[in-house]
Amino acid sequence: DTGVSQNPRHKITKRGQNVTFRCDPISEHNRLYWYRQTLGQGPEFLTYFQNEAQLEKSRLLSDRFSAERPKGSFSTLEIQRTEQGDSAMYLCASSLRPEAFFGQGTRLTVV
Amino acid sequence: DAKTTQPPSMDCAEGRAANLPCNHSTISGNEYVYWYRQIHSQGPQYIIHGLKNNETNEMASLIITEDRKSSTLILPHATLRDTAVYYCIAPVVTGGSNYKLTFGKGTLLTVNP
């Protein structure tokens, strides 16, 4: 059990570019979450997968954001046409029971 | 989620017990109380959770009042590595299995040498 892995750890992109982040959950964890955290704030829920099904999306997840979890294993979060307001830490978590285990996050900076 | 209220910051001396309070007066009968912490620049870390009985694990103890309106997380022998933001959360389960966590601003615990 190597924990939840997120790649890349850091990403700097120019405004208007597309970015994609990857999350590898703990094996056999059927639940997967994406959260976003800005400076000085607690993490905010973005979306939830149970196996491969995306069951809930926050209204924070605009149409520029899309998340997938093919085959119920790893997940990707894509942001199209990035804006400066997208700069944040993007956190992935997985769980089998109610308690969730978080990765180290991907820090996105849009310049 | 049931609204939780925590002090914004606390200090503790190294080696002493750290007692972090949380008020959750609107919690319903089937809502658990979860505690997570976040060390600077890392992802949140699960600590402990409970419903109405006191709980203890290798990291901490959780004391929940009988009326369930408040709880206290106890770190029995705080170390410098326990310096972190501690979040008290009472998630509502949606869709049958989504334990969506609503993080507030938490309590910044600073352990001093």
Give a concise summary.
The complex is a heterodimer of chains A (111) and B (113). Chain A has 111 residues and is mostly beta strands.
Structure description:
- The complex is a heterodimer of chains A (111) and B (113).
- Chain A has strands at 5-7, 10-13, 19-24, 31-37, 44-50, 53-57, 65-68, 75-79, 88-95, 101-102, 106-110.
- Chain A has 111 residues and is mostly beta strands.
- In chain A, strands 2, 4, 5, 6, 9, 10 and 11 form a seven-stranded mixed beta sheet that branches.
- Chain B is mostly beta strands.
- Chain B is built from no helices and eleven strands.
- Chain B is globular, with a radius of gyration of 14 Å.
- Chain B starts with 8 loop residues before the first strand and ends with a strand.
- The chains are: A mainly beta (111), B mainly beta (113).
- The A-B interface holds A 4, 31, 33, 35, 40-45, 48, 50, 55-56, 91, 93, 95, 98-105 and B 32, 34, 42-46, 49, 85, 87, 91, 93-95, 97-106.
What tags apply to this protein structure?
heterodimer, A: 111 residues, mainly beta, seven-stranded mixed sheet, four-stranded antiparallel sheet, globular, B: 113 residues, five-stranded mixed sheet
What is the largest interface, and how many residues per chain? A-B, 25 and 24 residues
* Distance between the amino and carboxyl termini of chain B: 36 Å
**Shape call of chain B:** globular
Give the biggest sheet of chain B: 5 strands, mixed
Give the DSSP E fraction of chain B (strand runs of 2 or more residues): over 45%
Q: Would you count the extended β strands of chain A for me?
A: 11
Low-confidence stretches of chain A: none
Radius of gyration of chain A: 13 Å
Mean pLDDT of chain B: 92
User: Beta-sheet strand percentage of chain A?
Assistant: over 45%
Order of helices and strands of chain B: EEEEEEEEEEE
Tell me, rounded to a whole number, the average pLDDT of chain A: 94
Could you say which overall geometry of chain A the principal axes of the C-alpha atoms support? Answer: globular
